[in-house]
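PROTOCOL LOG
Step 1. Enter all chains and additional molecules of the complex.
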Amino acid sequence: MKRLVCSCLWLAMVNLCLAQKTLPEFGEITPEERAITECAFDKEADAVVIFHAASADYDDQYKLIESHRVRIKILKPNGNQYGNISIPYRIPEDIQYVSDIEAYTCNFIQNGTIPEIKKLPNAAIYRQKLNERVTVVKIAMPDVKVGSIIEYRYTITSKNFHYLEDWYFQRELPVMHSQFSLSIMPNYEFAYRVHKSEQLPIEIKQEKGSGKIYFEMNNIAGLRDEPFMDAEKDYLQHVQFQMSGYQGTFGGTTRLMTTWDEVTRELISNALFGGQLNKNIQVGEDWANRLKAMPGAFERMSSIYNFVYNTISSDGIGSIGAVNGVKETWEKKKGSTGDINLLLINLLKEAGLEVYPLLVSERGHGKVNPEYPFLDQFNKVMAYVLIDGKYFVLDAAGPYTPPFMTPFPVINTKAFVVNRKKGGIITLTETKKKDQNLVNINARIDETGALAGDASIQSNEYARLTRMRAWERDKERFRENYFTKYQAGMKMDSLVMHNLDNDSMPLEQQFHFSIPPTTSGDYKLINLNLFTGIAKNPFISDIRFTNIDYGCLQSHVVTEAIKLPPSLKIESLPKNIRMIMPDTSISFSRMMEVKNDLLQVRYNITTTRSVFTADEYENVKSFYKKMAELMNEQVVLKKPD
Amino acid sequence: MRKCLSIITALCITCSLQAQLTAYDLSSVPETVKKDADVIKRYEDIVFEVTDIDRASYTVHKIVTIKNEKGKSELAFRVPTNKTMLLDDASITVYDALGRQTNRYKKKDMQTVATGEGLIEDGFLTGMYVPAAAYPVTVEYKYTLRFKGTLFFPPYQIITPGEGVERSRFTAKVPKDLGLRYKEKNITLAPQITEEGEYRLYKWTVSNMAPIANEAGAVSTESRYPLILLAPNRFSYYGNSGDLTSWQSFGEWIRKLYTGLDELPEDRKTFFRNLVKEAPTDREKVRLIYDYLQKNFRYVSIQLGIGGLKPFSAGLTDKKKYGDCKGLSNYMKAALKAVNINSYIAIINAGFNSEPVDREFPANTFDHVILCVPQPKDSIWLECTNPKADFDILGSFTENRNALLVTDAGGVLVSTPASTSSGNKLITTTIIDLGNDGSGKTTTLFRSNGRYKGYLDHILNEKKDGQKESLVNELGFKQPDAFDYNKKDTTGLFTTTLNMTVEKIPEFTAGNKMFLAPRLHKIWDIKLPKTGNRKLDYYFQSPFEFTDTTLFKLPGGAAVEALPKPVTLSCPYASYSTAYWYNEAEKAVYSAASLVLKQYKIPAADYARVKKLFDDVQVDAGQRIVIKSPPAP
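Step 2. Run joint prediction.
Step 3. Record the structure below.
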């Protein structure tokens, strides 16, 4: 009975709150909306979201009920695609369901003055089951063209508040107005966290005592993809929610995950996480004996990692906790990322190693803020092993990484060690191991200006991993991408790869190559920019919104010894030069020296920092542009007159 | 106790299987079969059984050994399913190199995901990725598909790229009164035909086939690897029965699906009559209506059930202003009908490297619909799905093959026009105002048609950053500091202009000399696949004609020190020529180039010559114009 009264009260308040921002009625188009022909704050936009408004509420069964309204105007022919709408939801039906779908297209007829509304018939709403977990409502709006306004609304009902999603004010299209109002069930507490740029104002209205809260942002430009970008989520204006507590029937509040300690407690007691950590996995006596025979802890760890990596495959599902459970994963030899790494932790533990689960957020997933104990800041669990005061991070459910290296996707991130005593937030960095290539060329130029010789390239650490993967994927493309693309007409006659099976050695690539002569009048031009990794400036765009994140530090050294023919003399030689960013974060140098008939060349490109903020973009871009120019300067030879 | 028993039986079965599988050791496989193979099909037994005109089943038992990482696609088990094709049962058993069973999966271990490129489709893929700890690994697949409807008969895919075949057998079992037709492709292999009561059995058997090398840039694999095509004589599809023994009868069946759908409401008919009333010829009328269609309708693919072959009515399409290839072609047909112009739906197989369908073997291997408007002389062909397509020009997507026209007298197989290089032109003219410091202001005029019109128009609709990326990364222009790219209204060729400000025009400067590339963009920047000993024809996307004129206006006092050598290269399929001269009066260096590909399909025997020519074009782009700057004042 008490609950019902509560609901009524709440409803009354909801009505009050909606007065905060009045939107035009469904189907009522304002003269201002009719007049829009471009988005004032994002002039190139193909379409603009006039508004997206949603309110989240609950019913007497404490189901989560969200009502959405979206109004979009098409501005350019490419914007027609936004007339195709997808609304995904979880299945089965008792988990989530989308209902009350209504939509229309409005076009302006008679010289664009009279709005004509075409309602979407129910028969044109399709539901497509995507897989066992997701169904998508699909709508193709009728008569969509430049100048059309489309609007749709729907209700999404979820089993409970666990399905409350974060609210994104920003998206691919620019948004003129975005609002979200949330009514929290009585006896429940939610924590929220706003992510937004300092320049953009946000309006947050909270009603004291009611748990009702309203968020609004206006005029937000669209976000686009950029090279070397980290997680999109880190730049999108959004507000994040997490349940933080509830009151028991007899009073008293149970706190949930409002501190990292509570997160730990919650995880340890969870059957799909903590409950999976001490499953006695039967690997067999052979295996146990072999492990026992290994003297060092590092050796044991490596061999367990390699074993799990090689034996268990991913079923394509990413999860923090277990999905099928570690036992089934072991039996079926496949599981989710959580299953695989929790199994890895089990085996490491059984081998007597000090190991804890490590919650990580890969760079593509987003940054972790240590001040907020929110679980959905993470996207994966890895194994965190301590041996003699040194830590190792192992991921058996990702691309292969030798156990002594930190997996590339988690460098420069914060992670959370799950353990009551030794747990907490840690920072994963990598300053010693780099993306490192050492190129050594011995060649000679003949009288025609043709260049031929041998190259030996050592790719170490992260460069080794990248090239190993590229090599395994496609050997033909490997030759093209790393070698022959540097010069049209280049021929490679052999390619020998060394240390393919030895993790701790650089991957060595040896080959013989030849380049046909390039002649202009009496001049022979020699390109020395070979296999350096820099041929083009990767940064073309004029503006940049997101950080540039290379993941790890770079070091590329190219040394060349080139024998010159007696019949040609050097007409001009690129200058010796050194270029460095004001803060020494990127440096480039080129040295050329001629001794008798031997031209010695050395290029060196080094970074001391792997992350650059959007503010630094202009500097980084011009540095790369200049560097590409310098790299492409050629040696000019000429027959003596 | 019961549980105990079942464990014991399970153990026994495992033992017997193990015993059997020791025979799967690779040493028994002939060297020729395994030498260049990534995957070896050890054993295959497929039975395709037609029960009656509405029902059929397809049962597969196959054992493959995957030798290395390159064969791992064989570990991805995926079966397409939809309302007419159901996966009844499936099991996968995995064996290690010693023939020991390491794992076993059932249908419940698999996942089902929606598939298809369209907005709305009812197709799924069911399957899983089979984990393999190490290579070689042997996997045994067993599954049965149940078909409701008999329009599609699965082919016997004998061998696939990277695969060697030890033993394989395919049996087609059909009621005698229905029968079937078959055709061998890229192989000579006769079936053994027997009878069994009411059924006739066709049995094909192969053994010890060596892998066939895959070559990049060839016609699609299904058109060049050995296989046996199967087709029904009579069929049923969503309850609509038809006859596939001739193109005529199949076209008749399609005609019935389209019947009554090409009628527009009276007011819309009047609209179209008004639209074309001033047009002097039928050709002009068609052009006007096609233009209206392209401007007002968008492509949305909805393929549900019979809707995969049957379009929405023209009336419905008119209301929604969208449709898929069938819907839009049918709408165009209805609009033409309103102005008394007759046209035919044309069913076709799309894709630039698709082979024309076999005239001698009627079967449903189509996936696209266009429209043909018969004329006293050449017919008008309309691609109704692409709002940017040229009027009466088919792209390489549908050119050079056979289309099935749906006429009142049933189906008629006709050839679509052959692609021409003059239908795919790109003419560029660039003027560069070169400064003393190497900086420059440039203007490029692009005039194009066909493929290149489509591409240049696509860039026009991109955002500024996207435009810059296309210009720099795809067309190979220098990175500009500022630029604008716009459409120019002209008659004839599609025309766009590019104005740029570039900090450094020269590739590099040495002393007082500037070394300039012969043109501001790359006329050809694709490396063709290696020659080896090519056995298959090579397919370009289309034939083409590129012409470039670049004009460098030199700064005051500058002089030409060297011009690149002119080049003329030619072979029966392509030609390339360049010329360079200095115009004293204009103080300008002219650089002219032309690159023509006469046909898009290059016979294997001639490929090496064509590749050599295109490689030489890339090397030739490394030549430099050398300009001497005036001495500093």
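Step 4. Note key features.
DSSP finds eleven helices and 39 strands in chain B.
Chain B touches chain A through 62 residues (CB under 8 Å).
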